[in-house]
Amino acid sequence: MGCRCDSNACGSCACSKANELCTPQCHGGQSIDNVPCMNTEAGKKVKTMKIKDVRTALIANGLSIIGDRGELYKRLADQIRKSGASNSTSNESGSTSASGKSNEGDAKNELFKIILENEDNYPFILSLSGKKIQANSGKAELRKAYLLLSSKVHPDKNPGNQEAVKAFQALLSAYERLANPEKFADEDDEDEKPAKKRQKTERFTRSNGGCFKTKVKCPQCKTEWGLPVVGLEDCAYNFIMTGLKQYICHVCSCQFGCMTALHYCPHCRKEFSYDPDDYHRKITCGNIKCNKEFGFWMFKVSERREKEVRQEAKELHESRLKKAAQKKRRAQRAGNRDAGEDGASKQRLQEQLFLLQLRDSCPRCGWELERGEGHDEAQQHLTECNDKVKIREYQQEVADEEAEARSKLDAKASEEEILALKQWESNGRQLGQLWMLSDTMLKRQCETFNLPIKGKRHELIQRLSQHIRSQARLMITDGKTDVSGGASGYDACSLKHADAEDLPQNLNSLDKEQLQDLCASYGVKFNPRKDVKKDLIKKFEMTRYKGTEQQLMLGYGEEKNKRRAAIKDKDEDYVPDE
């Protein structure tokens, strides 16, 4: 019986088992182009290549790189077989071929050309990364495709190449337009309308057509979140999905938000990557077998309740910033104490703690003391603890645990950054609250306006605040200024007109660095070298109440004169006893 692998790539067919190549007589006489056979001379060479080299070779030959792994390998194998140039592909494992390092530059130039030729086809540009991207793909999928492609076209990877600069700008534009379509919704409007100023507490409403309350699970114990037995309000789904609030799992007490939670497609029940910016969009499931579109349900919530949640989120974030500052100061003090210690000194300290039974396990190999054992057993173990294999394995285990702990801390920090950003956006992007954003978010805001991102935190905030306020003034004065960064979307309220709820609850609880950031947010002038905490608070309050001191003094003076007049009248009416 002949080879008949009509639906699967040849791997277990008769020809492959006999270590022979398939011939035109195989597959029931069907053309090799119509079956997924890879048991050919070209197929065997392609199968040894890495997937990134396959994509590079496809681009160099002007072929599409959209599809799964098997489709890409088959497409390249057919191209090699048809052209008769099987030596035109490269294998990064060390095999020499015509499209190796010598043609790598040509492949990149071809990629630049394809991107620039399709500059307005944003899904196609991101699909060149090898991932199938649509206009309504989730932001997480868009980010993955952007990062894959930017590693090839970034100007830093292609120094001196102007085509790379243009291609990267086109790639960045494609990502921004697909990830944040609302920013460009009115760009092509024929009527020139002034941009609407964003209100402090923006109320957003939309329909729920094609939307679902997607399943959300705890990242630690995989328990479904939001079950009726927990007693959460319906609008809690709004708050967690927009990144405004974190919740605690009712089973394992793990605190999580939308960035660390597990999200599942309402159609195929498979896990998908979620970003808070997707909440008011309809996205496509990343599962190839599903590929269905869905949105996220928006429950009705009163304006009062929404305001309460915003205020709770702001106060909670303030407390987190204070704790982070305290932790940073403690770490600095500990670092100063440990500055003169080396690794050997720390190891001796841990061994001494083990001997004093202040540590349960051996710092070398991880051996643990049994109940009832004491100093003598610990001393004997340290004397005999010379097994290099066990010591190396334990040290590797400790290093892995530390790496996992750092990864969890990074995920938590990323979650808190998103929470801070969403809380800031929900309050109208107030410039006075820039001090509450993380370093990463501040740099992203600066990049939006093409501002330098080097310098200390208060310098970044000052630079960003001054730029947006100046642009906002230009828009008011001439009405024609083109603000590419969208300064009209920010609340540039001055410190004198700021509400009490927008300011920190207690200025004295902030440290010097936080007060510098706060002053920079509201444009309060200060000397970062000379001004101490007391000076910063005084300058902030003087700016806050500037212009009202005279009114207060006048009011106090009038009241004082009235009291004096009343006392004088009483004295005049007094008649002494004769």
From TrEMBL:
Organism: Clytia hemisphaerica
Compositionally skewed regions (Low complexity) per UniProt: 83-102
Basic residues: compositionally biased ranges: 322-332
Name of the protein described by the UniProt record: J domain-containing protein
Residue span(s) of domain J: 121-205
Disordered as annotated region, ranges: 83-105, 183-202, 313-346
CDD domains to which the protein is assigned, alphabetical: DnaJ (cd06257)
Annotated SAP domain residues: 434-468
Basic and acidic residues: bias regions: 335-346
